[in-house]
Design brief:
Helix 1 (20-51) packs antiparallel against helix 2 (57-80) and helix 4 (103-116) runs antiparallel to helix 6. This protein is mainly α and 208 residues long. The N and C termini lie far apart (36 Å). It is globular, with a radius of gyration of 18 Å. It has helices at residues 20-51, 57-80, 90-100, 103-116, 164-167, 171-180, 184-205; strands at residues 121-128, 133-140, 150-157.
Length: 208
């Protein structure tokens, strides 16, 4: 299987505070690069299997992990945006308030993760299959400090290519812009899918 770059689900000039130039660079170059990297790693792995030659297996698996995570997290990141932002309602708001105490606490926590890291990476909101709760997570690069048995619901990219041409070193303004573009319908769909899977897999992944 050859992985392909999905189209943006909105126009390049449609997001608030994130320029068309940055979106084109980020989506067309950087996201494409992770997809190319994953395809290359999988090709090298297939060659290793065919030739029974394993001297590069660690490097292949490092590249595969980094690029697979970059591909998947970017897919979520693009889909999370394109909406009106603001405050959610219904199931998403209820779940955030249940697991974080308030919407404001969740938003502050995600923002603090994004600005506190000294590296490039991601602030994620994850549905944990081991306890049925939402958690925030800091992931350096794409795959360091990753969690297991989770479904990402919100993915906030804070690699410099996400914002530097627009904001310079002001990562906080970019984070504010990200929240202003959130598509709560997409996030609700991800939450509902995760909760449905949790009901089916609770015995497998439990106990808390």
């Amino acid at each position: 299987m050859t992985h392909q770059l999905p189209e943006l689900p909105y126009e390049y000039d449609s997001l608030k505070g994130i320029s068309e130039e940055v979106l084109r660079l980020h989506h067309d170059k950087h996201h494409q690069g992770y997809i190319d990297g994953r395809n290359s790693a999988e090709d090298r792995l297939e060659e290793a299997r065919e030739n029974d030659e394993w001297s590069d297996i660690r490097l292949i698996k490092e590249d595969e992990s980094f690029n697979q995570a970059g591909q998947v997290l970017h897919n979520i990141y693009w889909s999370n945006m394109g909406g009106p932002g603001g405050r959610p309602s219904g199931k998403v708001l209820d779940k955030i308030e249940e697991d974080f105490g308030s919407f404001e606490t969740w938003k502050e926590e995600m923002g603090q993760i994004s600005t506190a890291s000294g590296r490039s990476g991601w602030a994620l909101t994850l549905f944990d299959m081991s306890d049925g709760k939402l958690h925030s997570a800091l992931v350096d690069f794409h795959n360091q400090f990753a969690w297991w048995n989770v479904v990402p619901v919100v993915a906030l990219d804070f690699w410099e290519h996400s914002y530097y041409k627009d904001q310079g070193p002001d990562r906080g303004t970019y984070v504010d812009n990200f929240f202003q573009n959130l598509d709560w319908e997409d996030i609700e769909a991800r939450l509902e899918a995760a909760e449905s899977a949790y009901q089916n897999l609770e015995d497998l992944y439990g106990p808390e």
